[in-house]
Amino acid sequence: MIDTNIWLFLAAALVIAAIPGPGIFYVAARTLSEGRASGFASTAGTALGGLVHVVAGSLGISAIILASAELFTAVKFVGALYLVWLGIKTFRSAGHARPLGSETVGDKRAFRDGVLVEALNPKTAAFFLAFIPQFLDPAGTSPTLQFIVLGAISVTLNTFADIGVVLMASATRTQLIGRPLLMRRLTQGSGLFIAGLGLSLALARRPVNG
């Protein structure tokens, strides 16, 4: 179906997945503050949010958002405010850290947060629109389907990278779970970091073609 150089695409997608980005840092922060279950739920959420961008990009919706300064700014600030709110919430919960093994309580919330955080990030939309079209085969069938397939592969590779980060962050949290003061500082730091990701998104500029 896709006659483009799939091996070149896979190599590029692997390199991009291995490079730490906002998604990896977000998942790590959630894992450190809430535990492995929350980290995996966040990873699943960001994966679904990434697929939202893939479908939107294939249908031209992302291009419309990126072409409009007003739409880009609106989506950007909603996503930024949501991240800042999550960061503040995480920071304030530092004195009420859940004991090891009880993290599953917030799995649904962590999944929902992951979906919204990723889906409301127009920088992800810009990435897919800049990256995937380079590997589409103009002579192939259904460019839309090609875009979705390559996008899904990219999201899958990113998800595997996130899973590795969750496992490492969870191991770190397990070592510190018996030290309440350090756990509190770790949770506060995670909250500040998540809020910082929101501020970074708020300062993001709309990509301008040409």
Question: Short summary of the structure?
Answer:
The protein has 210 residues and is mainly alpha-helical.
Query: How many DSSP-defined strands?
Result: 0
Order of helices and strands: HHHHHHHHH
Query: Uncertain segments of ≥5 residues (pLDDT<50)?
Result: none
Bin the strand percentage: under 5%
Percent helix: over 70%
Radius of gyration, Cα only, in angstroms?
Answer: 18 Å
Q: Could you tell me how far the N terminus lies from the C terminus, measured between alpha carbons in angstroms?
A: 31 Å
Count the helices. How many?
9
Structural class: mainly alpha
- The number of distinct structural domains comes to 1
Average pLDDT works out at: 86
Which word captures the global form? globular
Largest sheet: none
Task: Describe the protein in words.
76% of the residues lie in helices and 0% in strands. It has helices at residues 6-18, 22-34, 36-58, 61-67, 69-92, 107-119, 122-131, 143-176, 180-202. The protein has nine helices and no strands. The protein has one domain. The chain is mainly alpha-helical and 210 residues long.
